[in-house]
């Protein structure tokens, strides 16, 4: 048993997606964990992947530089247990395994390429604290850079959930933007994006008729991703993005759709002027809006809950749960101090 004077172990989780590299470092506390450092950088690892089928040298270099920063932060914080996961870009790329080897050599970080099923489960676990009574079920979606995961879950109480079914759509903000451009209403590309995603989503709705279940008011809809958090920041008119105002907030879903259409009606430079969008997201944000509107087409909930949390938090929850089960606070998982 850990001595009273011994500091709590430090855990880290890295989520390397098609667009972003994200790190969380945390210590366990009685009701969960306390974040002691966070890092996020847009790396666009999947840039050009939909055309070439490979990760480009430039994208890999950007990503490795971000992961070096993660490794340095983990070493400085004395991380004792960590897990780093990679998602759609590495799943699809013909040179994905080669990239993982380069990352290990350059940073000491061992990336696990996880399945879409595990990605969805981790995102749900990370968001579980925001799923609340009186809702009995939830639709949870995670709009990524290269794919979008959607879960239908049952709420069991005490922050526990049970996945009833899930689907992974092969569309995210990066590959959809590469296919249609930055998206706008005038050219019709925004509507084309929505229709494409809706066609892929339709069988899931036909199978479960969730639109009818929504009418009961017992299904909560929650979104986690840069798209929904960005839209929340825009809607709240924040002078700069601040997680404390966004994470857990409720938005009127029809208002979010109106905001999405407004963004699709202005130019990329105009989008970039908003401090919650900026130049890095200006060309990608409307693709996320299109995915969101396709979801709304089938599931027009009154309100949407926004989560600035997801896979990273899910990884931390599982790491800390494993430690409690096996009593090992000094295990190094997928990372070594350099």
From TrEMBL:
Domain Ppx/GppA phosphatase N-terminal: 25-321
Gene3D superfamilies (UniProt xref): 3.30.420.40, Exopolyphosphatase. Domain 2 (3.30.420.150)
InterPro entries reported in the protein's UniProt record: ATPase_NBD (IPR043129), GppA/Ppx_hydrolase (IPR050273), Ppx_GppA_N (IPR003695)
MF terms in GO: pyrophosphatase activity
Top-level division of the source organism's lineage: Bacteria
Database matches in Pfam families: Ppx-GppA (PF02541)
Protein name, entry field: Ppx/GppA family phosphatase
Source organism per UniProt: Ferrovibrio terrae
């Amino acid at each position: 048993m850990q001595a009273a004077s011994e500091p709590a172990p430090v855990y880290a989780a890295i989520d390397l997606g098609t667009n972003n590299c994200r790190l969380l470092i945390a210590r366990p506390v009685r009701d969960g964990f306390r974040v002691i450092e966070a890092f996020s950088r847009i790396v666009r690892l999947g840039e050009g992947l939909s055309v070439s089928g490979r990760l480009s040298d430039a994208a890999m270099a950007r990503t490795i530089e971000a992961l070096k920063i993660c490794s340095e932060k983990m070493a400085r914080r004395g991380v004792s247990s960590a897990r780093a996961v990679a998602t759609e870009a590495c799943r699809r790329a013909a040179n994905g395994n080669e990239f993982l080897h380069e990352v290990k050599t350059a940073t000491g970080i061992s990336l696990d390429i996880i399945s879409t099923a595990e990605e969805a489960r981790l995102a749900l676990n990370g968001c579980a604290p925001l799923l609340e009574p009186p809702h009995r079920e939830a639709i949870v979606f995670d709009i990524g850079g290269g794919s979008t995961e959607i879960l239908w879950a049952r709420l069991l109480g005490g922050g526990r959930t049970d996945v009833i079914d899930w689907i992974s759509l092969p569309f995210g903000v990066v590959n959809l933007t590469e296919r249609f451009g930055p998206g706008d209403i005038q050219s019709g590309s925004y509507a084309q994006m929505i229709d494409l995603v809706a066609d892929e989503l339709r069988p899931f709705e036909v199978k479960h008729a969730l639109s009818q279940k929504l009418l009961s008011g017992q299904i909560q809809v929650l979104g986690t991703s840069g798209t929904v958090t960005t839209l929340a920041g825009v809607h709240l008119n924040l002078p700069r993005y601040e997680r404390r105002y966004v994470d857990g907030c409720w938005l009127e879903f029809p208002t979010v759709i109106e905001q999405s259409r407004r963004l699709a009606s202005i130019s990329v430079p105009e989008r970039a002027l908003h401090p919650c969008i900026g130049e890095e997201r200006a060309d990608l944000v409307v693709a996320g809006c299109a995915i969101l509107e396709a979801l709304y087409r089938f599931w027009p909930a009154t309100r949407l809950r926004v989560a600035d949390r997801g896979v990273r938090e899910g990884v931390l929850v599982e790491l800390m749960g494993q430690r409690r089960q096996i009593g090992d606070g000094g295990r190094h998982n997928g990372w070594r101090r350099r």
